[in-house]
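Attaching the record inline, Q. Sequence:
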Amino acid sequence: MNKVILMGRLTRDPEVRYTQTNNTLVASFSLAVNRRFAKQGEERQADFVNIVAWSKTGEFCSKYFKKGQQVGVIGRLQTRNWDDDQGVKHYVTEVVAEEAYFADSKRDGEAGNAAFDSNFGATAPGNMGSDFEVTSSTDDLPF
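Structure, as predicted:
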C-alpha cells in the first residue's frame, strides 16, 4: 500500500503548468511539515515535501491555496528520474496529491473550508458542534 497523509504549511504559492501532450493542468507546491518531536534544547525541525496535484485537484490547489496556509494532503509517494542535457541523472521524490483540504481554522482568517466540511462535516475532530452540551449536574450519571 502506498498512502501518504500530510499536514503542513505551504512554503510558496502553487505553481501551475500544463502538459505538452494533452494540456492537463499540473500544480506543484511544497509543504513544510513539522516533525513530531524536538530534541531537548533544540527548535522543532520541519521536512519540506514536494507535492504535485493533477487535473481537478491541481486546479483546486492553484485556485485556493496560498503561501503560509495550513493544508492537508492525502496521496501517494512517487519517485522519478531523468537525464538532463549534460547526461547527469536526476532523482526526485514527491507526493502525488489525490485529495487536498484546508487545515486552517476559519478563525485564522481563511474562509472557504467547504471542501473540508463536505468531507468531514462541520463537526470535525475538535469541534463537537452545537448538539453537544456539557452539564455540571451529576444527577443523571449511572454510577
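The longest strand covers residues 70-83. The first helix runs from residue 55 to 64.

More tomorrow.
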